[in-house]
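Components:
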Amino acid sequence: MDVRVANVRKEFDTFAALHDVSLDIRSGELIALLGPSGSGKTTLLRLIAGLEQPTAGKIFFGEEDASERTIRERNVGFVFQHYALFKHMTVADNVGFGLKVRPGATRPSAGEIRRRASKLLDLVQLSGLEKRYPAQLSGGQRQRVALARAMAIEPKVLLLDEPFGALDAQVRRELRRWLREIHDATGHTTVFVTHDQEEALELADRVVVMSQGKIEQVGTADDVYDTPNSPFVYGFIGESSSLPVKVEDGQLWIADRPIGLSAQGVPAGKATLFFRPHDVDLLEECAGCIAGTVAASRRVAGTRRVELEVGGQRQRVEIELPVDHPAAQKSRVAFRPRRWKVFPGAGE
Amino acid sequence: MADPALFAADAAHQEASGITETRLVRYVLMAIAFAFLGLFLVLPLVLVFFQAFGRGVEFFLSTLAEPDSVSAIRLTLIVAAIAVPLNLVFGVAMAWAIAKFEFKGKAFLTTLVDLPFSVSPVISGLVYVLLFGAQSLLGPWLKAHGITILFAVPGIVLATVFVTFPFVARELIPLMQEQGTKDEEAAISLGANGWQTFWYVTLPNIKWGLLYGVLLCNARAMGEFGAVSVVSGHIRGQTNTMPLHVEILYNDYNAAGAFAVASLLAGLALVTLALKTLLEMRYGAEIAATRGH
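Structure:
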C-alpha cells in the first residue's frame, strides 16, 4: 500500500508541530523517520495512523483519501513506544484482540482467533508464552507481542513509534535485525520513528531526516550520509567537523589563505565548510591546505582524535588519525578533506 | 564515633530504618495515634454495640422487626439501590471526560465535582426544598401534574445522589489521569469501537478503583442524614430512612432502640471496611499493577 502525505500541517493550540510536510512512501518500503526530539516525527506518524487529525493537508493510502477515515477504518497496525499492552489479558488475548472486536460477520471463530494468534507468536518467536501476562515478560518480549498484536489485523501499513527506545543496547541490536527479517518476510509497508541514527541507517530502505517540524532530506542511508543537503543533516547524521570559511573566486579561504578546495558553486561571501573527521588526507607540505596547532589528542577505540586550532580565530576542528600515525606526535598538522560540502552563511 | 560498640549499634539502627528519630519519639507518636483512634473511633463504636444489646438480644431483634424500623430499612436499601448505580454511571462518565479529553472549563468541572463535599449537607437539602417546594418556581407545575418530589422517595433519592456524587468520580479521576490514553488508542487502532474499548480495556484497568468508589458511595448513601433530613419530612413508616429513624427513636427516649438501628448502620460501615481490606489483601499485587506503572 502506497502512502502519500500531501502538504500536511499540524498545529497544537498555537504551536505548529509540522509545517507543510509532503512525503511519498512506496508500497512494501521500510521507512525511518529520524530526528531529534521536537522535530515532529512522532506527530507525523500519529497523523498517518489517524491518531491525530491534520490542521491542513491530506493523507492518501493508495488512491484513497485516508484523512476522511477514522483510525478504526484505516486498518493500520500501530506499535506504541511503551507497547500499551493490555495488562489484564494474556499474551494470546492481546494478540487476538483486534480479531475479537471485529463486527460479527467478519469475526473469526474463537478457535480460529487462537490459531492465528499462535501462528503470529511463532513468527515473533514467542511460541509457548500464550498464557503469560505482559508483566511476566521482558522488555524485548513485550515489544514482540506488541508487534504481533499490530500484525494480527492484517494492516495495510505498519507504524512503529520508537520501537526499540525502551530496550537495552544488546536487545536493540537483536530486535533490529529481527524486524528487518519480519519486514522482508511479510512485505508490509512499514514506517518507524527513531532518534537513533544508527538504527535508522542500518534498518531502513529510506531515511526521512526531520528537524523543527520540517523534512530536511529523504534518501537512502548512502544519500543522507554521503550527500547531506543541509548543514543540519550534515551535523546530525554521523560525525562531522565544520569551519567558517570565505568564498572568493570559486575558492575557499580561511583568513587570507586559500585552502585548495572548490566552492562547489556557492556564491562569494561567508560560508561554512563541512567534512567528516575521518575522511581527510594528511599533508607534509602546506600549499593550499588547512593547518592547525594540536590542542588536544584523544585515543578513541581504534583511532586517535586530534583537535586542531585553525586560523586567526583559533577555531577548533576535529580530525581522526590512525593510532600509529606520526602526525599525532607533531605540534602542527596540515590536512585537506577528501570529501566536503560548503553551505552558504556563517552557520552557528 | 570513637567507641566501636556505639558505632555498631548506630549502624544497625540506621540499617533498620534510615530514620533518625529516637525510639522514645517513635513510641510517643504511635501512642498518640492509637489513643486518639481508640478514644474517638473505637470507643464510640463499641458503645454503640454495647447499648444496642444492652437490653438483650430479644429487644434488639424486636426493635428491628417493628414495622417503622422495617420500613426505614427498606427505604434506605431502595435509596441506595437507586443512588449508587446512578453515581456509578455519572462518576465513570465524569472521570472519563476529565481524564481522557482536553476541553475548556475542565478545571472548573473538576472543582465542581467537589462541591457536595464542601457544602454542608443541610444546604444541599435546602436547595431541593427551594427548587421543588410549594412556594418554589417548579412547585405549582409539579402539583398540577401530580408529581411529588419533596417529602417523598424521589426527593430523598435526589438529595442522596447529590451528596454521594463525588465518591466514584474522585476515586477514578486521578487513576484514569495516571493511566493516560495509550491503552485506549491501542484498542481503537486495532479496530475496537467505543463500547468495546470501554468494556475490554478501560473498565478492567479501573475496576479496583471503581469498586472502592462504589463501596464508599454506598456507605455514605445509606448513612446520609443532613440532606435527607431536610427533604424527607420525617413521616414514620413512609419517608424515614435508617439514620432518621435512629434520631426519632432517640428523641422518643428509646435509647436502646435507637442504638439497635444505629448498630446496623455501624455494622454496614464495618463490613465495607472489612471488604476493602480483604480486597486489598487478596488482590493487592494486581491492584498495585493496574494502578502503578
